[in-house]
Amino acid sequence: MPAAHPLHTLYSDHHGWLQSWLRRRLGCVDDAADLAQDTFVRLLARPAPMAPEALREPRAYLTTVARGLLVDFWRRGELERAYLADLAQQPEPQQPSPEERMAALQMLQALDALLQRLTPKTRAAWLMSRLDGLTHAEIAERLHVSVPRVRQYLASALRHAYHLRFGSAA
Known about the structure:
single chain, mainly alpha, 8 helices, globular
């Protein structure tokens, strides 16, 4: 009989432990179950073979992956709470439909994911350009870089946004 796939062994040996670890951090059985499953889905989706440390120190490996998912989970929660708080400030006739709310939350999460993938200076340049309306020269002065460097930062942000929206360019 062939040997079990390393991910199958990792799952069967440590899924329950990981779910308990997540439940202690989240205080919610359902969210912990979802994130435990997402941890293994993330490992399954990786193109590279399983890292050797996954087998030597499986719980450390799993917690490293799960921590990244926890950060994303908490960030999405913060975005959702901020959005809903802003909606609560709007007069009743201007309230969006549930479908519009979901679409807006998904858009905010996608934008947050984009911003997190950018380097700090690229993110700062993009935000200064888009939110503050600063010129390239003003951004360069604030970031202590050249104007061509600002253009590079903005081009990089645009490539990331394109990739997020449309996938890889063919």
